[in-house]
TrEMBL record:
This is Glutamate-1-semialdehyde 2,1-aminomutase. It comes from Litorilituus lipolyticus. Its EC number is 5.4.3.8. Its cofactor is pyridoxal 5'-phosphate. The keyword Isomerase applies. PANTHER family: GLUTAMATE-1-SEMIALDEHYDE 2,1-AMINOMUTASE (PTHR43713), GLUTAMATE-1-SEMIALDEHYDE 2,1-AMINOMUTASE 1, CHLOROPLASTIC-RELATED (PTHR43713:SF3). InterPro entries: Aminotrans_3 (IPR005814), Aminotrans_3_PPA_site (IPR049704), PyrdxlP-dep_Trfase (IPR015424), PyrdxlP-dep_Trfase_major (IPR015421), PyrdxlP-dep_Trfase_small (IPR015422). GO terms for molecular function: glutamate-1-semialdehyde 2,1-aminomutase activity; pyridoxal phosphate binding; transaminase activity. It holds the Pfam family Aminotran_3. SUPFAM superfamilies: PLP-dependent transferases.
Length: 436
């Protein structure tokens, strides 16, 4: 039990942190008024707030905690490294060990550079592509919700305040599964495109031949293909979305699930491109990635243990099955509560998606707020779904009973034509919006 109540910690965070959290998707505007204001600890797929209320967690720290909170074998590996010191003036042994392991597993990986955040490595991949091709424009995919916290990406969203126009002009967008939208950009900007970067697979299935067609277009036009595998990596398959889809990019960026919540990311790619960031040969140098904390040993130990555990116990398979159960459970719960028309369930089983809809059949923030409020009341945290090794069928069944009750409240509210009236605070908002 924490020393103070939830409100104490929430007030302090709001006073001293812009947005009240260091990640926008954790902010108050993303959750209903009754959401736990802080999380004090987690174990498996459960978390507790400052007042010791327990929640079944389906979000698992933005999708990072693939084995579950405080997974003991990972903690043990971390402890073993911690006592030896955490960072040194020369590389540690395990930096090389992790880089080699990634090269064994990931199809595009011939060399690897480690960092801390997914954004570190997506942005480094852009730098490398620009250096390799001598071109400046970047094409990203309009379907990707996020690729980096840096200006090249944020400048291409609605929240572009503070990003120079010259930077914004360099990022273009194409549509997923629409190869014509990509070839139109290559035609519009001949010899100017350094790379195409996007999530190879997310919620929608790539049409047959689409990813290979993107690669072909890149190669014909002298651009690099970069897969943002920060989410798809170590989830769709051990070798990531590229292994699952059978198309190997020139570079790829990994993060999230690779260290069970510890901060490790990796840029992986073809040797001749990656070597531009090296210090050998006569070439002009590229200042690729150089981070004080990139070699932090206990995080790297966490990544090694996580990846080896995923591999040894075929946990990717478990994750697919678990996600399938969650999707099935949600659909059944919606049906038995009589609101199938208000709940859209989709996505791949390893990365399910759901949307709460309005009476017009479109995603609705009011219905979403009521869903979050009523599930949180019943001890379930499901802002989004990230299946993990820690979600057992029994836990999922228990959560689905609670979700069915929450859906029943939504049905009652809908019958009274008053969903908004049942919401006990502000309506949640999208992260990417122009004004507060
Ligand atoms: C697809 C994708 N790429 C990149 C990132 C950036 O990762 P990070 O927040 O670790 O910088 C995210 C973060 O959510 C992401 O979802």
């Amino acid at each position: 039990m924490a020393k103070h109540d939830n409100k104490f910690y929430a007030d302090r965070a709001k006073r001293f942190i812009p947005g009240g959290a260091h990640t926008y998707s954790k902010g108050d505007d993303q959750f209903p008024a009754n959401a736990p204001a802080v999380i004090t600890r987690g174990k498996g797929c459960h978390v507790w707030d400052a007042e010791d209320n327990q929640f079944t967690d389906f979000a698992l720290s933005l999708g990072t905690v693939v084995l579950g909170h405080a997974y003991e074998p990972v903690l043990e590996a971390v402890r073993n490294e911690l006592v030896k010191g955490v960072n040194f003036v020369r590389p540690s042994i395990i930096e090389g060990e992790l880089a080699e392991l990634i090269c064994d597993i990931v199809p595009c990986a011939e060399m690897v550079k480690l960092a801390k955040h997914g954004s570190d490595v997506t942005t480094a991949s852009i730098k490398l592509a620009r250096a390799y091709t001598g071109k400046e424009r970047v094409i990203r995919c309009s379907a990707d919700a996020f690729n980096a916290v840096h200006d090249w990406f944020i400048g291409s969203t609605v929240v572009d305040r503070g990003v120079p126009q010259a930077v914004k002009d360099l990022t273009l967008k194409f549509e997923y599964n629409n190869i014509d939208s990509l070839s139109a950009l290559f035609m519009q900007y001949p010899n100017e495109i350094a790379c195409v970067i996007f999530e190879p697979i997310s919620f929608i299935e790539p049409e047959p031949g689409f990813l290979q067609a993107v690669k072909d277009l890149c190669e014909i036009n002298g651009a690099l293909l970069i897969f943002d595998e920060v989410v798809s990596g170590f989830r769709f398959s051990l070798g990531g979305g590229q292994e699952y889809c059978g198309v190997t990019p020139h570079l790829a960026a990994f993060g999230k699930a690779m260290a069970n919540g510890f901060s490790v990311s990796a840029l992986a790619g073809r040797r001749d491109i990656m070597e531009l960031g090296g210090i050998e040969g006569e070439q002009e140098r590229v200042f690729l990635l150089s981070t004080t904390h990139g070699g932090e040993t206990h995080s790297i130990a966490a990544a090694l243990k996580t990846i080896n555990t995923l591999k040894e116990y075929n946990i990717i398979d478990h994750i697919w099955k678990t996600g399938g159960l969650i999707k099935q459970g949600l659909s059944q719960a919606a049906e038995s509560a009589g609101i199938s028309d208000l709940v859209e369930v989709g996505g791949y089983d390893c990365k399910p998606a759901f949307a709460m809809l309005g009476n017009d059949g479109k995603p609705c923030m009011i219905t979403r707020t009521l869903f979050l409020q009523e599930t949180i009341k019943r001890g379930v945290l499901m802002p989004y779904i990230v299946p993990s090794f820690s979600h057992s069928p029994q836990i999922i069944d228990g959560a689905m009973e609670k979700i069915t009750e929450a859906f029943a409240v939504i049905n009652k509210a809908r019958k009274e034509d008053n969903i908004a009236g049942y919401v006990e605070g502000d309506i949640v908002k999208p992260v990417f919006r122009k004004y507060n």
